[in-house]
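Quick one:
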Amino acid sequence: MILCVYALLYAEFKYHDNRPVHGKESDPSLVILGGDSKASFYGAFQAPSDGHFPAADANSDIFSTEEIDGSETTKIVAYCSPTLSSMEIIGSLVRDLPRLLRTQNIISDLTPQSEQECWNMIKKDWYNSFDAASSSGARELVQNIKCSSRDIISLAHRGLLSVTGMYSTWAPKTRSEVPRVNIKQTLFLKELVLPNHIIAVWNENNISRALVWYFGHLHSFKRDTGSTLWWPETNIE
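Output:
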């Protein structure tokens, strides 16, 4: 029996003031997907320094397919073996690759001015909320109208704040003592990703689903028929 795992290699444009700077791409990220009847695997890694898929060990009994385009900035390869388990294939491929942290390879390494201004307002409002005679402060801040939902989500992915309320699943949870912000403005997926971040979209039982590169990781989003709002299905950590 031949078992396979799948690798997706993605390089995204760097941004300045929410606009892509063409010709300047970030370091590629690599996602490996695989599993068997006992376990499944998802892992995001820093791609090899040459920016290509990892090469299988010539003596490992692993062979790879030709690269195919998943989207404008995504390529996909399958690694298969007639003798190794999925986990053994994965272990061989990623042995020397460092894990991709959530703060790496986010939408931009150039912080938009609006995001920095939003963060300054949040810090001021958060620390002003603490009573001088009490060690406790506001449980959460309500979104300032000058802060876009996109900026708040991006700040959360940088670990600077946590998101509460109905959009909390769009951002990583943090255990540290950081400001907590409740997003009140409607959050649209198109505000956070570009068309070339979307790998696939399909419909099933009146539900649309999309496989999306979201802040450097691969996530699934769903939308009910007739709705314009997408919601994450996978855990964003």
